[in-house]
Amino acid sequence: MARKKIALIGGGQIGGVLAQLIAQKELGDVVLFDIVEDMPQGKTLDIAEASRVDGFDVKLKGTNDYKDIAGSDLVIVTAGLPRKPGMSRDDLLTTNAKIMKSVAEGVRDNAPNAIVIIISNPLDAMVTLFQKVSGFDHAKVIGQAGVLDSSRFSTFIAWELGLSVKDINAMVLGGHGDTMVPLVRYANVNGIPVMEMLERKYGDAAKAKEVMDAMVERTKMAGGEVVKLLKTGSAFYSPASSAIMMAEAIMKGENRLMPTCAYLKGEFGVDGYYVGVPAVLGENGVEKIIELSLNEEEQAAMDKSISAVKNLVADMERLGF
Ligand code: TXD
Q1: Is the C-beta atom of 35 inside 6 A of ligand 1?
Q2: Partner of 280 at 20 to 30 A CA spacing, among 14, 39, 146, 169?
Q3: Domain hosting residue 108, numbered range
């Protein structure tokens, strides 16, 4: 089997961890691209020099030239700037949209057959823009948010129940913002509903609901919680790990079901927008979108989140993208 090639566009905090994880898992050869000179070359050299110790054997190349991504099977994009003090949301949207446009052109012209995972924020808008500029098949351009949001939710549930996180299954859908939708009813411990476990623990349905509400709230604010502690920059280990789970499903054709920012053509009552939904990821990118039956409350939360995504995309279009 020919060796896979994975290009990482953006060699900052997340890009660096992505390169290390891909190498350690031997998912493919890595090209780390950034506009900052020497930095991606330095990071890939550093990671390569751990290969003897870690026992991996892949090629790693740092570059400032898009030509080096030619032939990539997968591209993961983290290029973009975080919000700085005094910067409005529109300012950030304009800055990152400009960056994403140039990235989409670079990838389109040099790696036209790649499947693409976008991580840059504001996520739902950046995925939309990348697809529009590249013209790539919708199923081959996706965004990472839900895997991380779900992992955060699962972590909090595991801590609360005093159980291994390995047995927790929980999903967060919708846009990657404050309106995201943690699906409480579907959250389970190896099939047993989490709410049932909480009610057993507290012997009181109202208290169980209160505890769950707090975990839902913490999940929605989890990105900000990390930002506040780090002081500079945002979460990078967990976003990188989450994108790797998606990358692995695609590279290995695993057909794994995970919450993915995917393009909807009528599913969940949405037509023509990228939204976080359960999707099957395999060798062609999105193989299938799984439509869940949502109750009234869940559908209302989903509708709210979808309209936040629509507003974000409208803002981006208003700014000329
Ligand atoms: O789950 C999620 N989707 C997210 C997303 C969780 C956390 C953070 N999320 C977002 O990912 C975050 O808001 C940022 O938009 C991206 C990347 O986060 P990271 O922490 O890696 O940011 P860095 O360290 O600032 O790295 C960004 C790199 C940096 O090295 C820049 O030089 C580079 O992007 N950059 C570019 N690369 C290529 N091309 C262009 N034009 C470019 N401009 C900047």
Answers
A1: yes
A2: 14
A3: 5-144
Nearest atom of ligand 1 to the alpha carbon of 143: 3
pLDDT of 234-266, one tens digit each? 999 999 999 999 999 999 999 999 999 999 999
- Structure token digits, residue 212: 């769950």
The burial class, CB within 10 Å (0-12 / 13-18 / 19+), for 1 is exposed
- Total domains, the chain: 2
Q: Is any atom of ligand 1 closer than 6 Å to the C-beta of 177?
A: no
Q: Are residues 136 and 149 in the same domain?
A: no
User: Phi/psi class of residue 233: alpha, beta or left (left: φ > 0; alpha: ψ in -120 to 50)?
Assistant: left
* Percent of the chain predicted with pLDDT > 70: 100
Residue with CA nearest ligand 1 atom 23: 12
Residues 31 and 54 in one domain: yes
Q: Ligand 1 centroid to 17 CA: how many Å?
A: 12
305 and 268 Cβ atoms separated by less than 8 Å: no
Residue 297 clears pLDDT 70, i.e. is over it: yes
The last residue of a domain, from among 144, 161, 184: 144
Confidence of residue 91 (pLDDT cuts 50, 70, 90): confident
Say how far apart CA 32 and CA 275 lie, in whole Å.
28
- Alpha-carbon gap, residue 119 to 139, rounded angstroms: 16
Same domain, 204 and 62: no
Q: Beta strands of the chain (E only): which ranges?
A: 5-9, 29-33, 60-63, 74-77, 115-118, 141-143, 168-169, 172-173, 181-182, 188-189, 192-193, 256-265, 271-282, 285-289
Confirm or reject: Cβ of 234 under 6 Å from ligand 1.
yes
176 noted as active-site residue? yes
Token pair of 137 as six digits: 């098949």
| pLDDT mean over 24-32 | 98
Instruction: Say if residue 214 is in the same domain as residue 233.
Output: yes
Same domain for 133 and 150, yes or no, is no
User: How many Å lie between the centroid of ligand 1 and the Cα of residue 254?
Assistant: 27
Residues 172 and 319 in one domain: yes
